[in-house]
Design goal:
Blueprint (H helix, E strand, L loop, with lengths): L21 E4 L5 E5 L1 H9 L3 E3 L6 E4 L31 E5 L3 H4 L4 H4 L6 E5 H21 L7 E5 L1 H13 L2 H6 L2 H15 L10 H9 L4 E8 L1 H9 L4 E3 L2 E3 L1 H18 L18
Parallel strand pairs: 1-4
Antiparallel strand pairs: 1-2, 3-4, 5-6, 7-8, 9-10
Protein name: HNH domain-containing protein
């Protein structure tokens, strides 16, 4: 099986300026949402907005958008600081997915499009500390829904495994010196046996053959392969409700709230706005 994903930190950004806090107004002058300089420039370059004369970092749309934007009291309307929400550090910042991307990317579009609400700044140290707790929850979900983190339905290729392990041993000079002659010959025969069906390798030097064998995959996703995230989300979407013409998935909603509560409990984000919470909006309608 492929190795279970490890709790590692996402790479921090070269620049610690993640939030640029541009304000977007409607044609009627209502504050709608915040955006980055890049997004503001996108609107301006297409004549979909104009600069506001009274504010340095603000644009006004020149068209009627479909939605009404966020309410004034919404967390998404706040100016946000470029600091870790757990310790206030301004170094090594990274955007953390409160609902892990392995699940979020499998969710319906009207939920995924709300993902920016659940992207919060953490420094590398706080991110690593929290990821240990997140990994424990993922493993619990793997047991609950009977689908390993690496997915299930893998097809084993034993001949690839034998050749790969033999070649790997033969490519390590220090190890080769310690291998008995009989075992060394056995390893070479294993590689040679695999190469018999590889006519395109006939002209390759021995070292290149060993490298190619080391790159072999021991398994591949079979026809019944099921990804961990997709399996969990599909199970949570079995209960479906229609309210006011909109589709809801109550179990999926609860799943998102549980991850938000988990983050609040284990990351203990002292510098996170009080407007951010587990009961915040989930859908875009």
């Amino acid at each position: 099986m492929p190795r279970t994903e490890k709790a590692v930190a996402m790479p921090s950004r070269k620049s610690n300026v993640i939030y640029e806090n541009w304000t977007v107004y409607s044609k009627q002058g209502k504050r709608m949402f915040r955006c980055s300089l890049k997004k503001a420039d996108w609107y301006l370059a297409r004549d979909l907005a104009k600069r506001c004369e009274t504010e340095e970092k603000a644009i006004q749309l020149t068209f009627e958008p479909k939605g009404q934007g966020h309410s004034e009291s919404d967390y998404m309307m706040e100016d946000r600081l470029n600091q870790c929400v757990a310790c206030a550090s301004t170094k090594g910042l990274t955007l953390h997915h409160v609902v892990p991307d392995v699940y979020r990317r499998c969710m319906p579009l009207n939920i995924k499009s709300k993902s920016s609400r659940d992207l919060l700044l953490l420094c590398k140290q706080c991110h690593d500390q929290y990821e240990r707790h997140a990994m424990a929850l993922k493993k619990a979900l793997a047991v609950k829904y009977d689908v390993p983190l690496e997915g299930k339905g893998w097809v084993m290729v034993p001949e690839n495994r034998i050749a790969r392990k033999a070649a790997s041993a033969l490519l390590r000079p220090d190890s080769v010196k310690k291998i008995p002659e009989a075992r060394l010959a056995e390893l070479k025969r294993a590689v040679e046996a695999y190469c018999q069906d590889k006519e395109e390798w006939n002209c390759l030097p021995w070292d290149q053959i060993l490298v190619k064998c080391c790159e072999l995959k021991d398994m591949y996703p079979g026809p019944e392969f099921a990804e961990h995230g997709q399996t969990v989300v599909s199970e949570l979407m079995k209960e479906e409700l229609i309210e006011d013409g909109h589709t809801r998935w109550p179990q999926l909603e609860q799943f998102i709230r549980e991850w938000r509560l988990h983050f609040l409990k284990h990351a203990q984000p002292k510098y996170l706005s009080s407007r951010w919470g587990a009961e915040n909006e989930i859908y875009t309608h």
